[in-house]
From TrEMBL:
<dbReference type="InterPro" id="IPR050320">
    <property type="entry name" value="N5-glutamine_MTase"/>
</dbReference>
<feature type="binding site">
    <location>
        <begin position="181"/>
        <end position="184"/>
    </location>
    <ligand>
        <name>substrate</name>
    </ligand>
</feature>
<feature type="binding site">
    <location>
        <position position="135"/>
    </location>
    <ligand>
        <name>S-adenosyl-L-methionine</name>
    </ligand>
</feature>
<keyword id="KW-0949">S-adenosyl-L-methionine</keyword>
<feature type="domain" description="Methyltransferase small">
    <location>
        <begin position="90"/>
        <end position="189"/>
    </location>
</feature>
<dbReference type="Pfam" id="PF17827">
    <property type="entry name" value="PrmC_N"/>
</dbReference>
<dbReference type="InterPro" id="IPR004556">
    <property type="entry name" value="HemK-like"/>
</dbReference>
<dbReference type="InterPro" id="IPR002052">
    <property type="entry name" value="DNA_methylase_N6_adenine_CS"/>
</dbReference>
<feature type="domain" description="Release factor glutamine methyltransferase N-terminal">
    <location>
        <begin position="11"/>
        <end position="67"/>
    </location>
</feature>
<feature type="binding site">
    <location>
        <position position="165"/>
    </location>
    <ligand>
        <name>S-adenosyl-L-methionine</name>
    </ligand>
</feature>
<dbReference type="InterPro" id="IPR007848">
    <property type="entry name" value="Small_mtfrase_dom"/>
</dbReference>
<dbReference type="GO" id="GO:0032259">
    <property type="term" value="P:methylation"/>
</dbReference>
<dbReference type="InterPro" id="IPR029063">
    <property type="entry name" value="SAM-dependent_MTases_sf"/>
</dbReference>
<keyword id="KW-0808">Transferase</keyword>
<keyword id="KW-0489">Methyltransferase</keyword>
<feature type="binding site">
    <location>
        <begin position="112"/>
        <end position="116"/>
    </location>
    <ligand>
        <name>S-adenosyl-L-methionine</name>
    </ligand>
</feature>
<dbReference type="GO" id="GO:0003676">
    <property type="term" value="F:nucleic acid binding"/>
</dbReference>
Length: 275
């Protein structure tokens, strides 16, 4: 007889990962794994768990195995088409909401939206916001559209657009806030061939250059779409803050600054358009 308790003991995965996979396979809550741990499990459920556990042992991300990841208190669909939302990116949402304080129906643009995590989290937190989200990947936009429908409903749709950064945007559009979590890993960074990154879309991770190419493009083009007094905020690598601040300053943005994540790393940099 195979039980939850038996699978927990026999699994070679960390206990937390085993529990997450069991919750997913069985459709049980965590408390049920405890209170029903001695129940006999269906063979099909055991086989499905074993298959997922093998894929996890081979390195496949938990988020892709279960098809979702929590971000900013919301559960987002995740597929191999999109970057897995990460806790450090919540700082970008927090900054966005702070910058929107006092603005009525602010217009917000998320460049490279992926799963839509940033755009949807902003729209969910500010029902009056007008949020645009662009991505060059049609597959990513399909995931973002499903997340928006699930989490925001039909009455608060995102304005989704397939675009290489700002290229396809209406030149007449202006935003009080532009945010982006662009690819910022250098092409030769060994982390690209390690851990979860091996299974995520490479175009969402690296610019196939020095890690600053996409950021340079955004810094040069995004201010054309900022209203006077609007701001641009970018997530970047742990060692890129000084370079990003220099790019923002050279572009003519004012009050340029970097903000630290919970680990104390300068994770997001931004500035204001006053021209």
């Amino acid at each position: 007889m195979t039980t939850v308790a038996g699978l927990m003991r026999a699994s070679s995965l960390p206990a937390l990962e085993t529990r997450i996979l069991l919750e997913h396979v069985l459709g049980w809550r965590r408390t049920e794994l405890i209170t029903r741990d001695d129940e006999e499990l269906a063979v099909a459920s055991v086989d499905r768990f074993d298959a997922l556990a093998q894929r996890r042992s081979a390195g496949e991300p938990i988020a892709q195995l279960v098809g979702s990841r929590e971000f900013f208190g919301l559960e987002f669909e995740v597929t191999p088409e999109v970057l897995i939302p990460r806790p450090e990116t919540e700082l970008l949402v927090e900054i966005a909401l702070e910058q929107m304080g006092g603005l009525e129906a602010p217009r917000v643009l998320d460049l490279g939206t992926g799963s839509g995590a940033i755009a949807v989290a902003i729209a969910f937190s500010r029902a009056d916001a007008q949020v645009w989200a662009v991505d060059q990947s049609a597959g990513a936009l399909a995931v973002a559209a499903r997340n928006a429908l699930t989490l925001l409903g039909m009455d608060r749709p995102l304005n989704l657009l397939q675009s290489d950064w700002t290229c396809a945007l209406d030149p007449a559009l202006r935003f009080e806030l532009i945010v982006s979590n662009p690819p910022y890993i250098a092409q030769n960074d060994p982390h690209l061939s390690e851990g979860d990154l091996r299974f995520e879309p490479r175009t969402a991770l690296t610019d196939e250059a020095d890690g600053l190419a996409a950021i340079r493009t955004i810094v040069q083009t995004a201010p054309f779409f900022l209203s006077t007094g609007g701001s641009l905020w970018l997530e970047h690598g742990y060692d890129q803050a000084a370079d990003v601040r220099a790019l923002l300053t050279a572009r003519g943005l004012s009050d340029v600054r970097s903000k630290r994540d919970l680990a104390g790393i300068e994770r997001v940099s931004g500035g204001f358009f006053t021209a």
